[in-house]
TrEMBL record, chain A:
It comes from the Bacteria. Signal peptide: none annotated. It comes from Kibdelosporangium phytohabitans. This is Urea carboxylase. PANTHER family: RE64534P (PTHR31527:SF0).
From TrEMBL, chain B:
Transmembrane segments: none annotated. Residues 48-215 form the DUF1989 domain. This is Urea carboxylase. Pfam families: DUF1989. It comes from the Bacteria.
Length: 209, 276
């Protein structure tokens, strides 16, 4: 996949375990590049003009009748409006069900000993606060590169990833969209091979910075 | 009866007292004529039949059991649950399915909050046709499918009704997360594609138990991927009664290690909060 190099408005690396946010303007393309492979990128999206309109996993799933995201998937608000379209994807599929790790949910999944480990919800709260968003604004999120199959009996879980170094997903903004990212710190499940690694974020196009 | 005068209008309005229709609340709930087996009439705290396209809501005490019944086979109960004392703690469907390692809701599963606690437990289930993935219907989606999605129209969307129900508890649109739906099912294929399984038929019930004081919002509207072209939804019966919360001796407490820790977290919270 070739990222358009002559129209770059942002190119940054998000460290392992760190938060990130930016507004992707209408028509611009955000590329999320999995530098180390199998790094889960927890991702929320809001209409930048009215943050009460935000990504809805449920509406996105219902609209496309599929739990996985890949090329052609449209991330929608809780009222069905398109925020971002997946215009390219070299990984194959991405998770809509697993949500974010939190200090609280980690106590259920692994035990009370994980209570004081850093977690994605902390990143969402930290980064959301920069845009006036609080806990009530957090909803189920996308996990780029995370592999969450569902068995016939409903059993679901985060399993070994299908991503690899250099794989990339590209999202075109259908409206000015605030994206908030937690580059997942998780060290208790296989979502990032028990070893968080950095990811690269590139915004191109749209003719505006 | 003339309504041309204030006296006539008053008499006309008052003459409606005592009218009984199927879709209405019974107040007090103890007047409901058919308490569930083993439940005394005076234990009832909520008795209501919700019209198709309607919604309802209630604050329930810890330990209350809530029975929802699909009377005619085409109800779809979209449900949201909040901590009544701190409603920024609310149902988190992602944690509910991820933590309990299952996308399909079944007895002994908890409806988990974003704070890793159990808001409510599924006690019994005669239906098995439920969904935690697709959320509820949207105003724009219903407008596209049925010609109208507004609350005042003939095919209201779940999100519009949730918005109204939430407002009556001081909650705003940003307090409305993805919901679960009961009595209309969805299954996931290996490819990720969803299949709508519809209903298990008329007369099926689900019983939930409140594990802390909760706000319950219910919208009875068609499932968002119900493929039928007509807006198809039939009345939902809601009954609730005073009962006991889950204790360390209850089978639900130890149904899974994740569930046990969720009940332990809940007990820890309620103890510190002075509720239990």
């Amino acid at each position: 996949m070739t990222t358009v190099q002559n129209d770059v408005v942002l190119d940054t690396e998000v460290a392992a375990r760190a938060p990130f946010s930016t507004v992707v303007k209408t028509g611009q393309v955000l590329s999320i590049i999995d530098l180390g492979g199998n790094q889960a990128v927890d991702f929320l999206a809001y209409d930048a003009g009215d943050t009460s309109k935000r990504y809805s996993a449920a509406v996105t799933i219902a609209a496309q009748r599929n739990i996985f995201l890949t090329t052609g998937s449209v991330l929608r608000t809780q009222e069905g409006a398109p925020l971002l379209t997946v215009v390219a994807d070299t990984c194959g599929r991405h998770d809509t069900l697993g949500g974010a790790c939190s200090k609280e949910s980690n106590t259920l999944r692994y035990g009370q000993h994980t209570r004081h480990q850093h977690a994605c919800v902390e990143n969402f709260l930290t980064e959301g606060a920069r845009w006036g968003l609080g806990k009530r604004d957090l909803v189920s999120n996308v996990n780029w590169y995370m592999n969450v199959p569902v068995e016939e009996d409903g059993t679901l879980g985060i399993v070994d990833g299908i991503s690899a170094p250099g794989l990339e997903v590209q999202l075109r903004a259908e409206t000015d969209t605030l994206v908030i990212v937690s580059n997942c710190p998780q060290i208790n499940n296989p979502c990032n091979g028990f070893d968080p690694t950095p990811v690269r974020m590139v915004v191109t196009g749209g003719g505006a910075g | 009866m003339t309504t041309a005068t204030t006296y006539g209008a008053r008499d006309h309005a008052r003459a409606q007292d005592g009218t009984v229709v199927e879709t209405m609340p019974t107040i007090p709930a103890a007047n409901w004529p058919e308490p569930p087996e083993g439940v005394a009439a005076e234990q009832l705290v909520w008795a209501e039949t919700v019209a198709g396209g309607g919604y309802t809501h209630k604050v329930l005490a810890r330990g209350t059991e809530l029975r929802l019944t699909d009377l005619r086979g085409d109800a779809c109960a979209h449900v949201l649950v909040y901590n009544a004392d701190a409603p920024w703690e609310r149902l988190n469907v992602a944690d509910t399915v991820k933590v309990q390692w299952n996308a399909y809701m079944k007895p002994a599963m908890g409806l988990l909050s974003d704070q890793a606690r159990v808001l409510a437990t599924i006690v019994t289930d005669e239906s098995g046709h439920h969904d935690a993935l697709c959320g509820t219907s949207t105003v724009s989606g219903n407008a596209e499918r049925y010609g109208d999605g507004s609350p005042q129209g003939g095919s209201p969307a779940g999100l519009g009704l949730f918005t109204l129900a939430a407002a009556k508890h001081g909650l705003e649109p940003r307090d409305i997360p993805p919901s679960i739906s009961l009595f209309q099912g969805v299954r996931v294929q290996d490819s990720g594609v969803l299949t709508f399984t519809g209903s298990a038929g008329a007369g099926k019930s689900v019983v939930l138990r409140a594990e802390m004081p909760v706000i319950v919002l219910i919208a009875n509207v068609p499932h968002p991927i119900d493929p039928r072209p007509a807006y198809t939804v039939t009345p939902l019966q809601v009954l609730a009664w005073r009962a006991q919360p889950t204790t360390p001796d209850s089978p639900e407490w130890n149904a899974s290690p994740e569930g046990r820790r969720a009940f332990e977290n809940t007990a820890d919270y309620l103890t510190a909060r002075g509720i239990a």
